[in-house]
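Same chain as my last thread, 532 residues:
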Amino acid sequence: MAQGEDKMTLTNRQGHPVDNNQSMRTVGRRGPTTMENYDFIEKITHFDRERIPERVVHARGAGAHGFFETYGTVGDEPITKYTRAKLFQQKGTQTPVFVRFSTVTHGNHSPETLRDPRGFAVKFYTEDGNWDLVGNNLKVFFIRDAIKFPDLIHAFKPDPVTNIQDGVRIFDFIMNTPEALMMITFLFSPWGIPANYRQMQGSGVNTYKWVNEQGEAVIVKYHWEPKQGIKNLTQQEAEDIQGKNFNHATQDLYEAIESGEFPEWEFCVQIMSDDDHPELDFDPLDDTKLWPTDKFPFLPVGRMVLNRNPIDYFAEVEQVAFGTGVLVDGLDFSDDKMLQGRTLSYSDTQRYRVGPNYLQLPINAPKKHVATNQRGGQMDYRVDIAPGQNPHINYEPSTLGGLHEATKIGKEYTPHVEGELVRQVIDRTNNFKYAGEQYRKFEDWERDDLITNLVNTLKPALQHIQQGMTDLFTKCDPDYGRRVGEGLGIGIKNGIQSNKSDTEFGGRPIGTSHTDEGVQDAENKGHSADPY
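reply #2:
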């Protein structure tokens, strides 16, 4: 420390003690200022750069630290039968984790009561390096091919002209994407608005693989089941809460951990042999489908506890970076088309958003030995060099003291692949059956809320979109389509009594009602004031 400093003394980033943090250097009391205001220049230019680009999706989030504890078994069987991943092997082994919960579509400070899927991403800091399990609260997705992801998100994001989310645009896309009907059935029901993050399920959504010591593989689905129970909200309940607290889920998570009421989830997998399963009427790699639990039960693997809040939101929750391609030995990829596309997209996004050296940040860095030949790039503040490594050698192979390859552990997994290179959809699409089954499984109040939210969102839509969506819901379940049609004032066979025949935009966000009244109320109920 410099003379006169103590551990709490304010400095700039150069380590210079700051003895006046109230005023810039000026010519006289009134100025002007001079160019050599270093403390001000460093402070303000850093402030100008405080915000990294907002995530395209999953911008609004909350997070916490904790641990995962393995049971050492999968169901009643030793886990070694299915995977050699080290973090699962020894009963009671605890692995540090960081979890980020989020909403998908809306911005960084959007209300947490909006109808939207919730992200549920877990970073495991394992002894073999990081494993990222990146999923959602809902166990299915809208699309099954990653090439459609930008279109999906553009449809759900605000209109590029009005900057308002518009259900007309959304259902224009969904009407032409019937594989999304299962997800739409969940999203517009109370399951589309979880009550908070603690009482929310999580799912890997995509199909992955486990590989054992012999190089044999099975396909798996991952699930997080909250031990606090599951709670969801109706649209009206969510709107009431939003008027009181639009940060309610973040506050709930923070206060629960701060008070020692640590949220906990049980980690389960479903397991299926690694083939195309012709006995099923859907493709097991199709992420718009659920695997039936009567054939493929949830098998407990371990538990996760969140027990520590972040010290700094920006450094941890905002800069944490996940990728579906971040796996460890014993875990592998399936041919799920969404997973394959996400594996490129996620890490590419982090390198653009946070920078090529984002893995050097403490929240993202593995808690183990790291040594690479990667050099340079924006914000490269250290070199991942091994003790004793020749600093002149940043390539491999070398005989001059460079890094060398690791010793292979376990038999390599080598799946057989053959076929023509094509651009085709999967064989067993079955877009309607399971959405209908889910509709019938809902309780009455869940069905009522689903129909209300769909009708409210579709009311501003054009005639052909209203009719098209009603027809699709009817294919899922006749009662489903009938109730939506009646709510819209149309008949499935008798045509449409809507007066919307031209292209119109400026509809309402999904699920909401009375949005036009809100605009008018703001003017009519606003209190006049004199200028000052």
